[in-house]
Give the backbone structure.
Amino acid sequence: MILKNINPTTTNAWKELSIHFEEIKEIHLRDLLNENPNRKEDFSIEFKDFHIDYSKNRITKKTIDLLVSLADQTELKNAISQQFSGEIINETENRAVLHTALRNINPQPIYIDGKDITEVIQNSQNKMEKFCEEVISGQRKGYTGKPFTDIVNIGIGGSDLGPNMVVDALKFYKNHLNLHFVSNVDGDHVQETIKNLNPETTLFVIVSKTFTTQETLTNANTIREWFLNSAYKEAIPKHFVAVSTNLKSVQEFGIEKENIFPMWNWVGGRFSLWSSVGLSISLAIGFKNFKELLNGASEMDEHFKTTPFEKNIPVLLSLISIWHNNFFNCETEVILPYSQYLNLFPTYLQQAIMESNGKSVDRNGDKIKYQTGGVIWGSAGTNSQHAYMQLVHQGTKLIPADFIGFKESLYGNNEHHEKLMANFYAQSEALAFGKSKEEVHLDLKFNGALKTIERLLPFKVFEGNKPSNTILINALTPRNLGSLIALYEHKIFVQGIIWNIFSYDQFGVELGKELAHKIFLKGKK
């Protein structure tokens, strides 16, 4: 076994955290702030364009010290080294986990089966760059000699969610090409996508590692049939490319070998946007911006690898999440990006986090008796404030929140942005500090509601003491988005190590697929 099999609940740190939790579980954030006027500065981290404020959590310096001890006692530092060096930490599938190698600014040789993978990564990126430049410039054309105007990405899961999220998040930087994403096997989805497209000027990117994924292949074949209604079979190589390892099946589909981009088994699907799976990203924003995305992720990788745990952003956010999950028994976390550009970010994180850490057996194969992965949800603020934030503020469930905001707007509309950020700050403060009976009483009295004070008072009180983190970033750039995504990737990894689970397999998605296939075949008889 590469990774140590350490049940976290048997460590001294866990036992001390359990005692510590009983001591501070009723403490209020208002009291913590009153005790330490410098609390915000003491519980914040600056990194590049990022400011992380984790002061609005029910934690003390002792809490952090004990959580860091938990990371040490579960041998996190050694696990980080094993991942980055290419050890087979995805043991159930006998694979390394090296999506970080795809974005390494200063690559050191990493060997898989005796081969240095840095060379194949560079070759793949060179191929992507050349292809994208030809499409964007109009040098590469469709079968009637017209330049491409539209790109359709055909994939599902990690072959769709990552590229779709990034293209949507960085649409401010997009070029003239229009990007479309087809994922659901629902025929209405694919038909709505292609109904207004011109086959003469549309390029299709099929993303499937095995080229056997039911949803992707069904959609690809439907689109191929639609394309051939107006084009001839020999035109397929000009309009279809693939990201896959199954060269034989891809070529049988009609795609030429030089238009097949590689995938590797040491890159998991939900962490694959940094690879050729990001071809649609590169087509949408240009390879230069795609490279900036990679560079930003690489900077977060270096921070994660080299920074002491007590100042390490992914480690600290992961430990605080474990504190909420395993001691406060919180079952969900809400992700609240205060940017419409990041509206798909919570959806992307749902797969990344829940498919990774939704496990109930440990690395030894034994049933786990403690909580692992949380339920992730959310959407863009301020829309969320007019929807589900009522439950977060006054509901019976304790729901930790991550607020993600930007100091600058991209279009420079200051009035809009000032109002947006006023809400960004107000929501985290309201969750933390609430509104006391005395404050409500005074408000009602001031507004002339003397006769209804006693009746309305309990409904207008906000208990507060709801935990949150604030991630404030200078501006939404490709580089900063890369760092943000990598931050959450490393958070996933840290939680998996401490929970003593394998984060990089996903056997749980297979049973439904198997049954669906049997039901489909049975219906055909």
User: Anything to note?
Assistant: The chain has three domains: 8-94+307-426+470-509, 128-289, 434-465. The first helix runs from residue 12 to 24.
